[in-house]
Amino acid sequence: MSVRIIGFNHDSASDGSGKAGITFMFTDGIMPMAYNEDGSNLGGWPSSSVSSALYPNVFSPLPADLTERIVEVSKPSNTGAVDSVTESNDVIWLPSYVELVGSVDSSMGDIAATLQKEGSQYQLFKDSGVAATGGNSVLVMHDGGQAGSWWLRSADAGPADSWCYVDATGHPDKGGAANQQYLVVPCFCL
Fold this sequence. Notes:
Elements: E1 3-8, E2 22-26, E3 30-33, H1 49-59, H2 64-67, E4 73-78, E5 85-90, H3 97-101, H4 112-116, H5 123-127, E6 141-143, E7 146-148, E8 150-155, E9 162-166, E10 172-177, E11 182-184, E12 187-189
Antiparallel strand pairs: 1-2, 2-12, 3-11, 4-5, 6-7, 8-9, 9-10
């Protein structure tokens, strides 16, 4: 697996010691899976099947000399309800909608203000001009050479059965059915 740097001094260490130095993101999608087998978004990221699967299937197999240096960080995410955001402590996670696009516009409807509370845009995506509209080549992820849709940490608050995702053209959106098989593109900090 290969990774790329998406930010410096961006994420807050969960132990209160300040900012983690470097945030990395996988360069391709892995592990196609449903967000939640029960088809819901209730409880948001911390309660999701994807969140539960990342530690044993992605983090644990990483080399020990890497995992010993990975910093646990606090990640805000909505709980599947408008205006309800919680913090989770993660060593490996998915990016949120706002961490990709920076500013959430009114096209996201009732959840725009909630999504805006899920962090801030990573420098790589800011420098690459990632926006909420149209395709963004830096967000196109592949699995076996073919571009595919991939999940974000953000629940589509309102409908209890969908999540935000990025489509195969690199366009971030909402409305991905929780039982749909999409790729995951994990992040971690050193």
